[in-house]
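Service request form, structural biology core

Requester: graduate student, group of Dr. S.
Request type: structure prediction, single chain
Budget code: on file
Notes: please return the result as structure tokens.

Sequence provided:
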Amino acid sequence: MILVILNCLLLTLLFLAAIIGLRAKTLKKTKNWLVISRVLYLTLLVGRVLISYHFTPLAPLAVSIKLLLVILLIVLIELFFARKQSQTINWKAFTMLSCTFVTSLLINICV
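Core staff response, request fulfilled:
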């Protein structure tokens, strides 16, 4: 249970770090938040793998969906940071990132 709570906390911190980094005005601040986001998502990924190892025999479909949603969130964050360094980010990107985060968080809490 504590791993699930820590996973949700890391997911929330990752989302906040990504939003702050994507809204940063200078490239230096954006890169700093990118490093923070990478540390958080690597920690999140390790935690998710540990949870998957323990809970796969109990609910393999739910564990797979949770892991895929975390990977999707990481890919979106990396894509948006790459786009941010070359051009501006529009509101659709923030909406997509927010929807993926909310979906991941709800599935992590409910299932």
